[in-house]
Amino acid sequence: MASRLGTDKDIDRVAFGAHQLNLTRLRYFVAVAQELHFGRAASRLGISQPPLSLHIKALEEQVGAKLLTRTNRHVALTVSGRILLDQATQLLDHAERVSHVMQGVGAGEIGELFVGCVPSALYDVLPKAATHFRKAYPNIHLVIEEAHTADVMKAVADGRHDVGLVWKNLAEPPLESEVVLEEQFVAVVPADHPLAAREVLSLEELAPEPLILPPRKISPYHYDHILASFVNKGLRPRIEYEVPTILSQIGFAASGCGIAISPGFARTFATERVVVADIEEKMAPVLLSLVWNKARMSPPVSQFRDVVGEVFRDARDRVGEREPKLP
């Protein structure tokens, strides 16, 4: 081959050879090309001059072109050398960026986190948790998807979601869970209802009223606990409506359809058309849990779990301050 390249065919051959080039060898070449002096380049690279010369010779053989002209006093780039210097500089810069990104991914500082969430947790605590998380990990993109407990847990098990916030106390393998917030059930009463003047209501008073509960199909945990609380007192509740979300339960109550029995989150969404009353009997608490797949644990999942735990501890403190004041 000629020692000097200038045709498109020659350039293509250099580019083709670059697919197999060693990054270390390219760094050596760039140092020589920038210094135009083997001694200074060797000193900059922290190696001796003879191995550097051998690497440049091997690189020239690999690309099939002369990259440098060299005399006792002068080093210069050939046309091929100038082309390779430009391409190698870009390639090395890109390789450095890739390395930085992958280190960030491995450390959990860069990436994407898919979070499944029950509707009622979307309006208060989760946004606060997301804000704290984004401040700590600005290069992790959060993707939030709203769904009911069963759907969120299935998505986490299948790997479509990384973590989930659900109304459940325990998760079954391969999922693991941690309770992050406890809420008591409350009664959401239409503002013009005779019971609206009461701050605390008993199950005996609620049983004959048209009740609004979450559907058992999507919230078996809630439905069963509410029903058991009545049955254990020998009461038969009058369940008129099964409505899926806290917001929709409040809407039904506000329209005079009945009294909703909802998690304490209902206080956050209550309007002037409803009154939220405590329930006298101590019912089983409503448990909001964070779930994840143990087999797919990653640094972002672990970090999100820590941040959510911290934020929800603050929320638990607020809940404790508004416990029912019973006689």
Features:
327 residues, D-Maltodextrin-Binding Protein, domain 2, disordered C terminus, 5-stranded mixed sheet, 6-stranded mixed sheet, 12 helices, Arc Repressor Mutant, subunit A, 46% helix, alpha/beta
Question: Can you tell me about this structure?
Answer:
There is one protein chain. This protein is α/β, with parallel strands linked by helices and 327 residues long. The protein has helices at residues 8-18, 23-35, 38-45, 49-63, 79-106, 125-136, 149-158, 203-206, 220-231, 246-254, 266-269, 299-321; strands at residues 68-70, 75-77, 111-117, 140-146, 163-167, 175-183, 185-190, 200-201, 210-213, 238-242, 259-263, 274-279, 286-293. It has three domains: 8-106, Winged helix-like DNA-binding domain superfamily/Winged helix DNA-binding domain (Arc Repressor Mutant, subunit A), CATH 1.10.10.10; 111-179 and 291-321, D-Maltodextrin-Binding Protein, domain 2; 185-284, D-Maltodextrin-Binding Protein, domain 2. Helix content is 46%, strand content 21%. The strands form three sheets. It has a six-stranded mixed sheet, sandwiched between helices. A hairpin with a 4-residue loop joins strand 1 (68-70) and strand 2 (75-77). Helix 2 crosses helix 3, helix 2 packs across helix 4 and helix 6 (125-136) crosses helix 12 (299-321).
User: Going by CATH, what is the homologous superfamily of the largest domain?
Assistant: Periplasmic binding protein-like II
The name of the CATH topology of the largest domain is D-Maltodextrin-Binding Protein, domain 2
Largest sheet: 6 strands, mixed
The helix-and-strand class reads alpha/beta
Distance between the termini: 99 Å
Which range does the strand content fall in? 15-25%
Taking all residues together, what is the mean pLDDT? 84
What's the Cα radius of gyration?
A: 33 Å
Q: Which residues sit in consecutive blocks of at least 5 with pLDDT less than 50?
A: 1-19, 319-327
Number of strands: 13
What is the architecture of the largest domain at the second tier of CATH? 3-Layer(aba) Sandwich
Order of strands, widest sheet: 8-12-7-11-9-10
Shape: rod-shaped
- Tally of structural domains: 3
What's the CATH class label of the largest domain? Answer: Alpha Beta
Family: Belongs to the LysR transcriptional regulatory family.
GO cellular component, one term: protein-DNA complex
Domain HTH lysR-type: 21-78
Pfam families: HTH_1, LysR_substrate
